[in-house]
Amino acid sequence: MAAALGLGYYSYRSANRLAERSAESVQSSNRVLGLKLVDRIEKVILDTDRTFFKLVSLDDPREFMELWRRIVRISPAVQSVIVLDDQREVVHFVAKLAPAERRGFHELFARRIVPDLELGKLAPDEHKHLHTSYGAKSYLLSYIRRRSAGRDYYIALNYHIPYIIHEIFREEFKELEETRAIAVMDEGGGVLYGWPVFSDSKLVFEAQFPTTLYRWRLQISPRDIASFRRQARARKLSDLVLVATSLSVILVGMAVLIVAARKERRANQLKSEFISNVSHELKTPLSLIRMFGELLSLRGASDPKASKEYAEIITRESDRLTALIDNVLDFARIERGKAAYQFSHGRLEPVVEQVVELCRYRAEQGGVRIATRVAPDLPELLFDASALTLLLLNLLENALKYGAVRGGEILVSVERQERRVLLRVADQGPGIAKEEQRRIFERFYRGQDARGSSARGSGIGLSLVKHIVEAHHGRVRVESELGKGASFEVSLPIAEPEPIPKRGGAR
Ligand code: ADP
User: Ligand 1 centroid vs 402 CA: distance in angstroms?
Assistant: First the structure.
């Protein structure tokens, strides 16, 4: 039991671990992919920066004025290029803007952006970014300090934010978007790209852009996080069900074993009871025979009346002994699977008459009347006469043993009911308790009262009855209420039975 529970616990734990591992692996692949995407975006911007910084020549201002056309050709991502002198005054300014916008941006640049660039802190050839918002608008500026003809210059690139979002992000994310949900949000949680997952699940990975778009963060998660969770839950549940099923199979197996062991123990106990019962059954008539045999030899000649009585007792006890031995031998044959029946067509009446005659003397001794009621219209049946004799003998002897009431009656009746013949033995005795009615047909089983009384028996009579009835394709049942007698009913089919195979075993 403990082993089964331990096994169940370990399988459940490993199933759980497996589920955790699979979540962990999704988590770590998310992390790797997320960092890769951040890196890619950064690289696109940095590469653009570098290309521009290389292109912008400060030596020749005319060449610089040519720049605008190149901007359009090379990168739609850069919206304007501004050059400042060492006094931080704008010396060159090109932009892909309508004149009004151009003026607005020029002013914003001079008034707000330049102070925020903190150019004083910039080392020669140092390359930095300013990612900020003015009003509701986001700006990304890349800038560098350069030296030309003995003077410092600053070159600044202003990026076209909608282009970054709608073109660069889309281009860089599209490969992964089949399996992942990717979103970009600003510092206030505003959604700039995609549909973010608002969940604290470990399956969602978030990362900030480190140098360029550093106020934004990228989020990446499995495409259908809900179904992933559902699957994980379903997997966990099915593991749990599997563990529970195996546990219950083990438990049921154990219960079956326990029941079988108990049955076996009970069968062994019943067997030894049977042996002692049979020995007792054999001993009692034998000692009576011996006793009355001796009396007969001593006083037989002088008292003819007594000698007749002794002889009758000897005959009766011999009959009983024979019946018992027949019962035991039949039972043993059935147990070994050798009970072969000899079926032939015939009528049941002679069997009933013979058995009733056999028992009449005993009944009279006990002050009981055996009444018979045999219907006149009985059809012929296919049966084994000696087996049915044994069957009826057992039922009648039981009625005499347990159900005889002085002055009472035992009724043996045979009647027809549709396609069956019903053979009934009913007494007026104490009856059989409901809970015992099924068990009395088990081999070796003796009723509670029978065991406590002086009634002799071995517990095989009714199991023989049941076996014989089944060999005839019939049924046997008992109807009884405590204190109201017992009625055993055997029903045999009228229709020609199928050829009956030899019984391979009693049960
Ligand atoms: P045995 O008579 O040797 O004990 P049986 O198999 O013939 O074994 O009967 C089993 C049990 O059924 C009996 O021990 C008895 O308790 C109960 N029984 C059988 N017939 C009757 C009856 N007519 N009235 C009351 N109890 C009966």
Answer: 7
